[in-house]
Amino acid sequence: MHNTPIAVSVLTGFLGAGKTTLLNRLLKDPALENTAVIINEFGEVSVDHMLVEQASDGIIQLADGCLCCTVRGELVDTLAELIEKSQTGKIQPLKRIVVETTGLADPVPVLQSIMGDPVLARMLRLDGVICVVDAVNGAATLSAHEQAVRQAAVADRIVISKAELAEPHEEASLRARLSVINPSAEVLDAGRGEAGVSQLFECGLYNPQTKTADVRRWLGEDQAHNHQHHDHHDHDCEGHGCTHHHHHHHDERVKSISLVHDKPVSYSTVEMFLDLLRSTQGEHLLRMKGVIEVVEDMDRPLVIHGVQKLLHPPAWLPEWPEGPRGTRLVLIGYDLSEDYTRKLFSAFVGEPMIDTADGAALSDNPLAIAGFKA
Ligand SMILES: Nc1nc2c(ncn2[C@@H]2O[C@H](COP(=O)(O)OP(=O)(O)OP(=O)(O)O)[C@@H](O)[C@H]2O)c(=O)[nH]1
Predict the structure, then answer these.
(1) What pLDDT sits at residue 6?
(2) How far apart are CA 261 and CA 349, in angstroms?
(3) Does residue 374 form part of some domain?
(4) What per-residue confidence (pLDDT) applies to 232?
(5) What CATH number corresponds to the domain at position 208?
(6) Mean pLDDT of 37-49
(7) Which is more confident, 238 or 314?
(8) Interface ipTM
(9) Whose CA is nearest to atom 3 of ligand 1?
């Protein structure tokens, strides 16, 4: 039996941001048939209004034909149960699962559940993370809650809700702030009809419909390029009572680092670099994605996708897409040491910076890195 992996989208966003409203609208699109929704409820959050009645197996058929269930134990168990039922014909065959996290949740453990389980990793492919940010309360929420910043930081797409209720300058300054927290995410306005199925889904690397991979889009390189001249505190809020003395403590702890090297590297170099990076900075790595040109197989890119210390089993794309080759990694971190990470990368790819040991010395003794602060 050929099992095409089921696409998984994670829908996150703070309490009341508008996740369920967005999802209800999306589920009306026929393109989302054969989708199951998992609502990741925790005790303190009221049961979602979608769950009007409780079925014995916890799976509810919604009016539009989609399935809905809540996480009763571990998310991994709920995912495994859904896959099993889909494969054995107990429920309709699933093409997609949307996991709606609770507003208070850190999305990183949710991503770990999807990517980290060796069996699930073969059955599922993480399509993308969608984060809803409320235009009215978003800025205050980002300032008050670390989880809200982490939710925006790991997203592939950010959806602004309630923009029609916000002053235009509020939305503009929120957008400027989001582009610093997450320079590579595409930001879409739900009210302007920008947040439809085609914009929010299939943001993964490989699109099974077109059978092509779009590395630039996956890595958000166009977005990041557009934002690179933004200065952290210099967003346009003059004349609106903004003092420029923002206390964006949580924002400042998020960092998106892009590592580029234009020559192929050996597989063992890649392994050692990733091992060291994960063992020293793993706690601080929210998400890592990228492609690598490996000396041993230069016809295909090696795909790297990870969350914290966890790396999705390395995968190869069938061939290089158009455009530049080499290594392109995007790391999103929380309290990640940029200096250390860049030095480690330079040492391994053979471009040691001044006062930095080379890769061989580092693999013997990682503490040999100048300025080591892990
Ligand atoms: N005006 C306006 N209201 C919205 C919009 N999106 C959501 N809302 C309202 O905001 C409230 C919260 O929306 P939900 O979709 O329940 O938010 P949620 O993120 O699922 O909330 P939790 O599950 O509690 O975390 C509801 O009253 C919605 O009707 C929007 O774009 N514009």
Answers:
(1) 92
(2) 7
(3) no
(4) 44
(5) 3.40.50.300
(6) 55
(7) 314
(8) 0.97
(9) 162
Percent helix, percent strand, percent coil in the chain, to nearest 5:
35, 25, 40
* Same domain, residue pair 148 and 11: yes
Q: Do 208 and 274 sit in the same domain of this protein?
A: no
How much is the pLDDT for 57?
Answer: 53
Q: What CATH number did the domain enclosing 326 receive?
A: 3.30.1220.10
**Structural domain containing residue 300:** 262-368
Q: Which two tokens stand for residue 228?
A: 């690179």
| Residue to mutate (ligand 1; options 10, 20, 37; most atoms within 8 A of CB) | 20
Closest ligand 1 atom to the C-alpha of 49? 16
How many angstroms does the Cα of residue 42 sit away from the middle of ligand 1? Answer: 18
Count: domains in the chain = 2
Its pTM stands at: 0.82
Q: What is the mean pLDDT of the chain?
A: 80
Identify the domain boundary among 223, 238, 271: 223
136-161 pLDDT, tens digit each? 999 999 999 999 999 999 999 999 99
Residue 47's identity, in one-letter code, is: V
Task: Tell me, in angstroms, the distance from the centre of ligand 1 to residue 100's CA.
Answer: 13
Q: Residues with beta carbon inside 6 Å of ligand 1? A: 13, 15-21, 103, 161-162, 165, 190-191
Say if residue 187 is in the same domain as residue 40: yes
Same domain, yes or no, for 35 and 158?
Answer: yes
Query: Ligand 1 atom closest to Cα of 13?
Result: 19
249 within domain boundaries? no
